[in-house]
Amino acid sequence: xxxxxxxxxxxxxxxxxxxxxxxxxxxxxxxxxxxxxxxxxxxxxxxxxxxxxxxxxxxxxxxxxxxxxxxxxxxxxxxxxxxxxxxxxxxxxxxxxxxxxxxxxxxxxxxxxxxxxxxxxxxxxxxxxxxxxxxxxxxxxxxxxxxxxxxxxxxxxxxxxx
Length: 162
What we know:
By secondary structure, the protein is an alpha/beta fold.
């Protein structure tokens, strides 16, 4: 079941944080091993991490609670809302904001074993708030993508949030 609520304002509360080292959380709706989901995360992250000189933050990481086999996408959304997104032990960044460990407004879901044929789902909120004082509507949206397109898509989003 890939149904989602039309909005999720709880994911739009992180505008005053530093997103520079945040990773996209990877979850699964299918029964796969921990090793397999880590392989998928590594494949999604490989080109980005190599481009960073194999150091620094990862673009994609397996979420701490990632296995939602035989559950609904809305269960993952609920878990992502509850996920502590602030990096542990962080003081304010050089920009005066706390560092985020996880992107709050988007995540990736494995929906099929074949991740090159509609097996990866990108779920995100569209923040339509006009300024920081306005509570964003945070409309939910999603689309399928192929593993081979991950780096260009996700790195564009990451650079856009810096």
